[in-house]
Amino acid sequence: MRVLVLHSHPVEESYGKALYRQTVESLGKAGHTVDACDLYEEQFDPVLSRQDRLVYHDYPENRKLVESHVERLKAAEGLVICTPIWNFGFPAILKGYFDRVWLPGVSFELVNGKVESRLRHIRKLAAVLTYGATPFRAFAAGNPPKKIVKRVLRAQINPVRPVTFLAHYDMNNCTPETRAKFLARVGDAMERF
Questions:
Q1: Domains in the chain: how many in total?
Q2: Can you say how many angstroms the Cα of residue 165 is from the centroid of all Cα atoms in its chain?
Q3: Per UniProt, which keywords does this protein have (predicted)?
Q4: CA neighbor of 119 nearest in space, from 151, 149, 150, 154
Q5: How confident is the model at residue 110 (pLDDT cuts 50, 70, 90)?
Q6: What is the average pLDDT score of the chain?
Q7: Distances (CA, A) of 135 to 19, 88, 179
Q8: What is the DSSP string of 150-172?
């Protein structure tokens, strides 16, 4: 299976980067073809410009500025999002990726006023997330990233299939042991993806 791994952490020596490397390595070990997309390394421009917005609904004109990313998304059979959670949301670069690449005609189409997915070719979805917050604080805040992954993205990709959701909460108080345990958990999950 061809798996697109989206990563959005700018620090090379970070735990988030270690999780990304583990994700890519374990998927490869499982025999998947991995398209490792490090948005910072690739210098992805997350800004939805005025021109982008003017042509937003004009398919295929809307995809011209992000054509290579659209092609990668369309080729994917699996999707893994590997990112930290900042202020109970995705980093701006990842949010911008969704705004600029998941376009009408690419990820969905409006048919008689109803949204129809164009991502049914993606058979599996996973998320590897790190939170500074505890599970309770994330829950109390509504945990928007979890809802986006498990409800919104799942509905666009395949609403009846389970989602692999892995989260290391309370990074503010983590230990080398908790990080190692979660890293191993990610490796195991990606080998079974």
A1: 1
A2: 11
A3: Oxidoreductase
A4: 154
A5: confident
A6: 96
A7: 19, 11, 16
A8: IIIIHHHH-TTS--EEEEE--GG
Q: What single DSSP character describes residue 104?
A: B
End-to-end CA distance of the chain: 10
Residue 52: helix, strand or coil by DSSP?
Answer: helix
pLDDT in tens, 122-165: 999 999 999 999 999 999 999 999 999 999 999 999 999 999 99
The first and second tokens of residue 7, run together, are 């990563």
> 95 with 49: CB under 8 angstroms?
no
Count of CB atoms situated within 10 Å of the CB of 133: 18
CA distance 134 to 87: 12
Q: Which two tokens stand for residue 20?
A: 């990304």
Predicted TM-score (pTM) of this structure: 0.95
Amino acid 73: pLDDT: 98
Output the furthest CA–CA distance in the chain (Å, rounded): 53
Q: What is the CATH number of the domain that holds 43?
A: 3.40.50.360
Q: What is the DSSP letter of 140?
A: H
Give the Cα separation of 35 and 31 in Å (integer): 13
Amino acid at 171: M
**How does pLDDT run across 73-96, given as a tens digit for each residue?**
999 999 999 999 999 999 999 999
- Alpha-carbon distance of 37 to 57, in angstroms, equals 25
